[in-house]
Amino acid sequence: MPRLVLTVIGDDRAGLVEALAGAIDEHGGNWEQSQMAELAGQFAGIVVVEVPAENESALRAAMQGLDGLLEVSAHPGADAAASVDDRTPMRIDLLGNDHPGIVRDVSAVLARHGLSIETITTGQRDAPMAGGRLFEAHLVVRVPSGGDPVAVREDLERVASELFVDLAFDAD
């Protein structure tokens, strides 16, 4: 069965996930995986679905019918076997005073080492004692076979000291 990667966005309100799930179910689709969140008044996410080949076109058309409620784009996804790999996961947690360039500098290190970002979650919060804003990021990255996690960590620690942020690592 074909897999589709759906990107969705719409004004946040009750019933968005239900409408999307209903359309998928009506066409024999199976909701496999998703990441969704409300950000700045918008509800956005990515959903991986598997759908019978004979229903794919009808499901794509149904997704267009959600316009006005949700904007949905359907993209072909890799089959389940192709998405399994032997890269080693590494979790990175970052916390420091908020300022421009943190994500750019950290992601540049990851790209330089050939790491793929599996997930990234970022946010801001008030600094409890000093005032101002703190920036936090939580990443799960994949170190390719033959990659050097120690070198990645050393490079990230160097950048963290330049950015005045704290890092914590957890290799699975």
TrEMBL record:
Residues 5-80, 91-172 form the ACT domain. It comes from the Bacteria. Pfam families: ACT (PF01842), ACT_6 (PF13740). SUPFAM superfamilies: ACT-like. InterPro entries: ACT-like_dom_sf, ACT_dom, GcvR, UPF0237/GcvR_regulator. CDD domains: ACT (cd02116), ACT_GcvR_2 (cd04869). This is Glycine cleavage system regulatory protein. It comes from Agromyces marinus.
